[in-house]
């Protein structure tokens, strides 16, 4: 780890330390690191509009206890990382979504997933990490695919969770779930935003495993930490203006494990299966009962599968 970086104990969990990392491209990322420096590193990349705290402490601690050093961070435009101010032309999101579904190219976003993957590559360099395992969830999985293809020297093994390669004609997200993810709350005060987040957790989460009290506490904690809806829209535009990752998947040579919940109503399991089919030698595991989230019930299974994958000699 880069000795020039100054770390403090995370205000959220005692076994992680936080710092700010200036990438040198106008972006500064907020980062947390936990585990022993001599252990193999796992870099966690979170999804659309999701702060790094969506990687549950229990998940991070489970990987640390299995002999890994864990890094989680806020992507650009979310949480405590840099916000991208864009004064460009307003884009027709519905039109972009239609073209995206058909595999047609889009332009005009402030940045693309390639830029976000470049952020991650620079973060790895700034942290002084030579090579790392990577786990990406949802949009974070898309960024991870680009990272593995463009910077193979930095990615040891690849772990993907409820993600997609956005190839044309995959089943679309369920409308209610997608609208809740990118839609606006009924009111802009704290209670309205927290209730909107709670509704989202219930719509995309694992049926039967969303604890309403814990979800409400999480929503409030995230709101009080950072609320920047413009960043969520800009990340969504980044997905729409990046398009299919199918060709990049075919370039990935690292061993890959793709996990997907059987009850995912945002990205149906066929998305994860498409990724695993496109990456040579990739393994696919369907997690029975899991949705588009990481509930405590599934963490021992998920962390165990990833730890076994990263420790295996294949």
TrEMBL record:
Transmembrane segments: none annotated. Keywords: Hydrolase. It comes from the Bacteria. GO terms for molecular function: triacylglycerol lipase activity. InterPro entries: AB_hydrolase, AB_hydrolase_1, AB_hydrolase_fold. It holds the Pfam family Abhydrolase_1. Residues 40-294 form the AB hydrolase-1 domain. One of its GO terms (biological process) is glycerolipid catabolic process. The keyword Hydrolase applies. This is Alpha/beta hydrolase. It comes from Acinetobacter pittii.
């Amino acid at each position: 780890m880069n000795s020039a970086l100054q770390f403090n104990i995370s205000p959220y969990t005692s076994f992680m330390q936080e710092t700010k990392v200036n990438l040198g491209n106008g972006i500064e990322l907020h980062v947390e690191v936990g585990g022993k420096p001599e252990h193999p590193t796992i870099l966690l990349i979170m999804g659309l509009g999701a702060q790094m705290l969506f990687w549950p402490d229990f998940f991070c601690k489970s990987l640390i206890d299995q002999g890994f050093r864990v890094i989680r961070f806020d992507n650009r435009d979310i949480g405590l990382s840099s916000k991208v101010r864009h004064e460009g032309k307003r884009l027709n999101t519905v039109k972009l979504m239609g073209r995206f579904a058909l595999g047609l190219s889009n332009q005009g976003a402030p940045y693309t997933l390639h830029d976000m993957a470049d952020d991650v590559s620079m973060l790895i360099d700034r942290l002084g990490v030579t090579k790392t395992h990577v786990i990406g969830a949802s949009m974070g999985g898309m960024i991870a695919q680009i990272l593995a293809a463009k910077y193979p020297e930095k990615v040891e093994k690849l772990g993907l969770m409820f993600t997609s390669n956005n190839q044309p004609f995959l089943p679309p997200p369920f409308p209610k779930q997608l609208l809740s993810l990118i839609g606006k709350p009924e009111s802009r005060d704290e209670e309205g935003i927290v209730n909107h987040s709670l509704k989202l957790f219930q719509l995309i989460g694992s049926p039967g495993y969303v604890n309403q009290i814990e979800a409400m506490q999480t929503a409030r904690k995230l709101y009080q930490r950072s609320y920047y809806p413009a960043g969520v829209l800009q990340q969504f535009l980044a997905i729409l203006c990046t398009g299919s990752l199918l060709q990049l998947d075919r370039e990935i040579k690292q061993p890959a494990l793709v996990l997907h919940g059987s009850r995912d109503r945002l990205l149906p399991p066929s998305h994860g299966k498409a990724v695993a089919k496109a990456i040579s030698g990739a393994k696919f595991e369907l997690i029975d009962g899991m949705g588009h989230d990481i509930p405590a019930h599934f963490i021992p299974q998920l962390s165990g599968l990833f730890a076994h994958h990263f420790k295996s000699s294949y």
